Amino acid sequence: MATETYILDVARIRADFPILQREIRPGVRLIYLDSTATAQKPLAVIEAMDRYYRWSNANIHRGVHTLGEEATALYEAARQRVARFIRARKAREIVFTRNTTEAINLVAYAWGRSQLRTGDLIVLTEMEHHSNLVPWQILAAEKNIRLEFVPVTEAGYLDLETYEHLLDQSPRLVAFTHMSNVLGTINPVREMAEKAHRAGALVLVDGAQSVPHLRVDVQALGVDFLAFSAHKMLGPTGIGALYAREDLLEQMPPFLGGGDMIKKVMLRTFTPNDIPYKFEAGTPAIAEAVGLEAAVAYLEEVGMEAIEAHERGLIAYALERLATVPGLKIYGPVADHRGGVVSFSMEGVHPHDVAQLLDREGIAVRAGHHCAMPLHEKLGLTATTRASFYLYNTYEEVDRLVEALHKVRAIFE
Ligand code: C6P
């Protein structure tokens, strides 16, 4: 049984998340181990969005009335907060999108289509989520661009020697995930970005799993583009962000056309708006931006360093305890090089059956390919079961997971 000491006041944190008080069935309390798919929301976020709709709801950047001005100020305050959170130089380097997926597509469409030529090379990795594969595949087919992939080693790391060889071919862009949503691997972004820049490539980092869990500083890491989603960092669904260096955004043509992204429209032509508005066509997710602002404020108050340390403790404990379950194979690196994510398979039991039996115990985990089919193919699997942790998870919940897995094992023996 867990005797570990807590870095965070988890009991107090848990009280902020109404859903965590829920019983899945009478007497069976929810154990939420699926934050990698989407995180739960604290009252601060729910109430900020509720307050916005009750008190300030209006469209932004349009009306001169009080509500319009308030809504605009709230939306732009969210942009400022997000910029500070990831240490961007300026708020205008933050473009609000729907999610990580749309942020990456924005770069593929606006930057890729205007800057890349036939035969150019983009380097990706075998551990990418489909969001950081398919947009580049579409672009590659359309513009006759080459894609190469950094392999994943047996131990779940990127093969950095092959990465250096690929850089010798002078790629135009290197795009990779900061943290794998399957293996939990935390990739050495700063070192990889430095090498990519030396080879003349730009660097796009998929921060969907890192921005919610680690202190991410775009300047220290030296990345050119960073994509992430609010819903994985305690915020609402429907909003995400693209960070891009100011000069790159200036150089890129618009992505979607419509209202708000223009300065002037004639019948046959238009003048685009300044950045970042040039990339935000139509009425954006205003209430969601307000929710995102509240989420970032919450994370900052708890402290990203403390969150990271808490999750490192949980994952180290989980890896140690999961090793006691007979027939369980765990994928990915040792605790020091991974975030709070663990994917596993149980010999002779389908990953979906494992997840369904865990659900009977109130334990929410994900089963499937986790939108990383090529990585699963590399592992020789079609699916895994995955547990993931966040600031509100406890060592006791790890114990409950392990006990439940012992029960699953017993059922199938
Ligand atoms: N991964 C998971 O369960 P969106 O859907 O756009 O908010 O995020 C996409 C995405 C991109 N990159 C990584 C590394 C991700 O993990 C995700 C989302 C979820 O693993 C849902 S598939």
Task: Give structural notes.
The chain is of the alpha/beta class. The chain folds into 2 domains: 133 residues, Aspartate Aminotransferase, domain 1, CATH 3.90.1150.10; 256 residues, Type I PLP-dependent aspartate aminotransferase-like (Major domain) (Aspartate Aminotransferase, domain 2). The protein has 14 helices and 17 strands. The strands form 5 sheets. The chain has a 7-stranded mixed beta sheet with strand order 4-10-9-8-7-5-6, sandwiched between helices. Helix 5 links the parallel strand 5 and strand 6. It is globular. Ligand C6P binds next to helix 4.
Question: What is the compact description of this entry?
Answer:
Helix content is 40%, strand content 16%. The chain has helices spanning 10-15, 43-56, 66-85, 100-115, 134-143, 160-167, 189-198, 218-221, 246-251, 286-302, 304-322, 351-360, 373-378, 395-412; strands spanning 23-25, 28-29, 31-32, 94-97, 121-125, 146-150, 173-177, 202-206, 225-229, 240-244, 262-265, 270-272, 328-331, 341-346, 363-364, 366-368, 384-388. The radius of gyration is 22 Å and the shape is globular.
